[in-house]
Amino acid sequence: MNISGRLLEILANKPDHVTDFPEWMLSNSTIQEIRNTENTAIAEIVGRDSIAATIRACETRPIRSIVPTIAYAGTEYGNWTFPF
Length: 84
Known about the structure:
By secondary structure, this protein is α+β, with helices and mostly antiparallel strands. It has one domain. Helix content is about 40%, strand content about 10%. It has three helices and two strands, in the order H-H-E-H-E. Strand 1, helix 3 and strand 2 form a beta-alpha-beta unit. It is flat, with a radius of gyration of 16 Å.
């Protein structure tokens, strides 16, 4: 399957798990450290507003670590050929 086909499959099916990260990018020890850290927040990074919201959350809550995530694509609607 070519890359466009794989991307279309991911966007259409929206699986919970797309791929595993390589060990050098996200090691098992890092995963365990995140699991053992209290007050860990997940922040979906989609633009400056989400960054501002994350900063504000850190100011108002005892957050000790942040796990950033990203969305599948810049848009969930519209012309499906545009992202490809």
